[in-house]
Amino acid sequence: MKIATLQMVSGSQLQANLDQAQALLQQASQAGAELAVLPEYFCLMGQRETDKLALAEAHGSGPIQEFLAAAARQYGLWVVGGTLPLQSPAPDRVANACLVYGPSGQPVARYDKIHLFCYDNGRERYDEAAVLVAGNTPVAFELNDRSGQRWRVGLSVCYDLRFPELYRQLQADLLLVPAAFTHGTGQAHWELLLRARAIENLAYVAASAQGGQHDNGRQTWGQSMVIDPWGNVLAQRASGPGVVLADLDWARLQQVRQQLPALQHRRFHTPPCQP
């Protein structure tokens, strides 16, 4: 199965961001991808953290969700909508939600980011809990590729990457990580953490990132990539908007899991999340 991780440099204008996403989804489709993953905050990197409140949509309706469904339908793709703000019971906070659409445009899965980023190095300070409501449920979905092979795909977002217990619960063949890592933390930990999640779960990992200088002054790390179950980086893009393509090999996945059956040797078990 060919997949595409889409790297963006989103700004503070919704329509410009959707236009950028549309162009990348079209490129992914033309290259033969079956699954395309947009980054976290693909629709908005606002001037202020509270800007996302004005874009919050009710789950199931709204222009951003309509865009994702239409793109999936138009290009015949599985589309993972990075994250977008969805309304929550708290009027001053939203859910940072990752939505999945099948090739016919139907909604397939929703995952609300569980772990909310908090960081302060004296120069940069972020506290997502000020405007976001944390999710509480791991989510995976089933995907039949064009050959008929069935993949279990686990969802996560950005800061979730630092919490390996989430990925154990997903018990997936492919782990998705849309993200907007800061430049400093990304430079130190991004690839290291992604490769660790692939190795310890004997799974493919596809990470789609924000990557560049944004009009709000923030610099994100980029380095969107796809990693195989042995921890090898199959494809990667350093910075700037673009499409990262890679072929996932089901036989290779099974070979690695058979040669090194570490998943069968676990002594502490958690039940898998339900699709």
TrEMBL record:
CDD domains: nit. The keyword Hydrolase applies. Residues 1-250 form the CN hydrolase domain. GO terms for molecular function: hydrolase activity, acting on carbon-nitrogen (but not peptide) bonds, in linear amides. Keywords: Hydrolase. It comes from the Bacteria. It holds the Pfam family CN_hydrolase. This is Predicted amidohydrolase. It comes from Serpentinimonas maccroryi.
